[in-house]
Amino acid sequence: MDDVDAVQASIARTMLESGDFVTARLNGIVYLEKPPLKYWLIAASFALFGPHDWAARLPVALAAVLLCWVTARFA
Q1: Could you give the CA distance from residue 70 to residue 42 in angstroms, rounded to a whole number?
Q2: Which residues have a Cβ under 8 Å from the Cβ of 56 and sit 6 or more positions away?
Q3: Do 20 and 39 form a contact (C-beta atoms < 8 A)?
Q4: pLDDT digits over 22-66, tens only?
Q5: What backbone phi and psi angles, to 5 degrees, belong to 72?
Q6: Do 45 and 37 form a contact (C-beta atoms < 8 A)?
Q7: DSSP assignments along 23-72, one per residue
Q8: DSSP label at residue 14
Q9: CA 32 to CA 43: how far, in whole Å?
Q10: In CA terms, which of 5, 39, 41, 58 is 20 to 30 Å from 33?
Q11: Alpha-carbon Rg of the chain, whole angstroms?
């Protein structure tokens, strides 16, 4: 997992542990650099499958597959 994935997974894990899904925090510091949808999806994946590397990457992979399917349907 590279540093960007680790930051996103850490923020999602913090959201899940604290129950605060509105304010993204990284090491206790408010992190408002990016919109929260990706963090919410990763937190949901963690809630379903546990805090694993593959669970942090699963929402992005599913979104990529969905985008390919939508593109194929419109093409």
Answers
A1: 22
A2: 1, 5, 8, 9, 12, 42, 45, 46
A3: no
A4: 999 999 999 999 999 999 999 999 999 999 999 999 999 999 999
A5: -65, -35
A6: no
A7: S-EETTEE--SS-SHHHHHHHHHHHHH-S-HHHHHHHHHHHHHHHHHHHH
A8: H
A9: 16
A10: 58
A11: 13
19-34: pLDDT as tens digits:
999 999 999 999 999 9
Q: Cα–Cα distance between 23 and 16 in angstroms, integer?
A: 11
* Domain coordinates in residue numbering, the chain: 3-74
The Cα 33–Cα 49 span in angstroms is: 26
Residue 28 tokens, joined = 């206790």
Q: Identify whether the C-beta of residue 24 lies closer than 8 Å to the C-beta of residue 11.
A: yes
